[in-house]
Amino acid sequence: STICYDPAGKTRYLAICQAYGVVPISYFLRHMKDSELALMHRGLGPKAAKALALSLTSNTSIVKLNLSDNGLDGDGAVAMAEMLKENCYISELDLSENKVGVKGTEALSTVLQENPILVSLKLSGNELNDRAAKYLADALVTNQKVEHLDLSHNRLGEPAGEALGMAMAENVGLKQLNLSWNNFRGQGAAAVAKGLGANIFLRVLDLSYNGFGNSGAAALGAALKSNNVLEELNISNNRIALEGALALASGLKGNKNLRRLKMSRNPIQNEGCLGILKAIRANPGAAMEFLDFSAIVVKKDFVRACEAVQALFPSLLIQHDGITRLFRREFPKVQHVS
Predict the structure, then answer these.
(1) Residue 110, CB half-sphere, CA atoms under 13 Å: how many?
(2) How far does CA 27 lie from the centroid of its chain?
């Protein structure tokens, strides 16, 4: 790889660091001219982040910036937001695990309403609460450029679900949304599902590790009746039982777009798995390519049903733990004496 020398950029950054009283990031000095800058787990803190942000304001090379796990806090995130008002090159930004909180989210949301360049934003693990979600939701109503948004591992609950659900119904840019590992249940879950029903652009939605339960699964089933764009849905580990699985199945009967459905770690039992299979089998236009039923105890009739469905849909992959694999202990064969 050729080393592009940028004396002006380096001199400027070193001067900024001196003014802020922070140690310059030697990696940044070496990689200023790269298109991707990955600075994870370096403990930068807000001050060094501000110095970096000032330097990035005039950087024209970097298009992907990863600053995850650097203790940026609200102030560091605000500095990055200010930088994004000037910088028109960065299209992918990862600020995961930085405690950006409400303050940082508000600043970033303001930027989203005017920045036409940013396509991917990751805010996973940032202690985002319902207030932070409200700012993001408002931005998503007007922003049409962000295609990939990651809000996983946060503290989003019912008000966040309501706000984001309404934003999903309006938004025309998002293609991938990750809401896994939050507190969506009850009304919040229903609101997110309703937003999905109205959205006509989202292709991948990750809702795993929430508490959607039976009512949330039923709301998703209803959404899948009207949504004809979503291709991948992950609802693993959502406390969905048999009743919820059957309600979801009713939405799959007419759906012609969903390709991947992940339902592992839900107490839907053998009958719930069968219900999903039957719905797909009854749908001649089904596009399903992958079903994940891992960590659910199934019986022989389910295994037979899988084979029958796969005969109709040869490209369909079904993942399950079989009837014995969950029980590792081997019992000695009992001999019947006749």
Answers:
(1) 14
(2) 29
Write phi, then psi, for 120 (nearest 5 degrees).
-135, 130
Token pair 């409400």: residue: 102
Pair 205, 233: CB distance under 8 Å:
yes
Q: Give the pair of three-digit tokens for residue 243.
A: 């009743």
Which residues on adjacent β-strands are paired with residue 234?
A: 206, 262
> In 3-state terms, what secondary structure has residue 276?
helix
Are 189 and 163 in contact, with CB atoms under 8 Å apart? no
For residue range 63-82, what is the model confidence (pLDDT) as tens digits? 999 999 999 999 999 999 99
Query: For residue 334, is pLDDT > 90?
Result: no
Distance CA 204, CA 189 (A): 17
Q: Is the dihedral of CA 290, 295, 297, 303 positive or negative?
A: positive
Pairing of strands 176-178, 317-319: unpaired
Global pTM reads 0.94
Token pair listed for 173: 């840019």
Within a 13 Å sphere around the CA of 114, how many CA atoms are in the beta-carbon half?
11
Distances (CA, A) of 223 to 250, 280, 295: 11, 16, 26
